[in-house]
Amino acid sequence: MKINVECGACTTLLLTRTLAYRTRPDDEGWRPHLGPVLAQAADKMAGAAHPGEVLEKIYAAVADRLQDGDPYQEAKDMANARMEAWWQAHQSPQPDLAELLAYAVAGNAIDAGLDTNLDATWEQFCAAVAEPLVRDDRATALGWVAAHPRARVLYLLDNAGEAVLDRECMRALTKLGLHVTAVVKGGPIVNDVTRREADRLHLGTVADVWDTGPGRYGTMADQIPDALWQRWQDADLVVAKGLAHLETLSHEPRGGPVLFLYRAKCPPSARLLDVPLGSSVAWWRP
User: Fold this and answer.
1) Confidence tier at 213 by pLDDT (50, 70, 90)
2) CA distances from 202 to 195, 206, 213 (A)
């Protein structure tokens, strides 16, 4: 997704949210960091090809200045625990892949980068589960899966919470005979799934687990490890979860199809496919 003038406002908003969460607003702990990081983001935005380059810059700059490890660790654990409970209460004896994909899209509403209040994002998830997908290319995706029973799938995970539903999608793909590689982050960035969460969610039981390297925003082909790049090249299908992957990959050509699963959380992501803001999307890009 190419960078848009609105991305400047979004970058500022996400920076203020992450500083508010990771410093003490009451004693103005954010003050020494806001200006310098914003200046770095503005400088990066001047030459960036897509929003991911700018957002990775701000998250890396904040982490470098604060040296606070993984401040979202507890939030990720809480989101995963609540989703595990939801899944246990709602799973059917033989889950249908189409239904699982819809759940996985709805789960993208749980995003601590937009709101660290799990109750608030959980309400959005529950509403999304009850809504139809506005752009729904699942039939095309399911037809492709049926025609390629031994295909290699690269599944790019996004946030904690929704990762529980991603696990079940990968389980269903594996049962259909496809070989699945789950890609997580090699180090903390907001509430994205890292190897720590992958282990706790037992992702290794349904897929090979690889990571993009530390602190990566989305997946940028020129920054991932060589071995993972080879898997990217060899994959017959890429499943890309969330806005970060839409921002970093939707404008990039590749030899095979990509299934983007996300909630349209910002105006540029909604305009990309002419869908309403806040709607659910399963976009098959041939």
Assistant:
1) confident
2) 10, 8, 20
Place of tokens 């020129």: 222
Q: Record the tokens describing residue 98, joined without a space.
A: 């189409």
Q: 54: helix, coil or strand?
A: helix
Token pair recorded at residue 115: 């709101």
- CB proximity list for 90: less than 8 A, separation 6 or greater: none
Instruction: Answer whether 0.70 is exceeded by the pTM.
Output: yes
Sign of CA pseudo-dihedral 103, 109, 112, 113:
positive
Question: What distance lies between CA 238 and its chain's CA centroid?
Answer: 13
- Taking 90 as the threshold, does the pLDDT of residue 117 lie above it? yes
Please give the Cα distance from 170 to 205 (Å, whole number).
10
Q: Which residue has the tokens 């090249």?
A: 233
Give yes or no for a contact between 164 and 87, defined as CB atoms under 8 angstroms apart.
yes
What is the distance between the alpha carbons of residues 96 and 83, in angstroms, rounded to a whole number? 18
C-alpha neighbours within 13 Å on the C-beta side of residue 162: 32
The CA distance from 50 to 248, in Å, is 6
Closest CA to 209 of 246, 238, 243, 170: 170
Transcribe 205-264 into DSSP letters: GTSEEEE--TT--S--TTTS-HHHHHHHHH-SEEEEEHHHHHHHHTTS--SS-EEEEEE-
Beta carbons of 140 and 259 less than 8 angstroms apart: no
What is the CB neighbour count within 10 angstroms for residue 278?
A: 16
153 phi/psi in degrees, rounded to 5: -115, 130
Task: Name, in order, each residue with C-beta under 8 angstroms of 24's C-beta and a sequence gap of 6 or more.
Answer: none
Q: Count Cα atoms within 13 angstroms, Cβ side, for 224.
A: 21
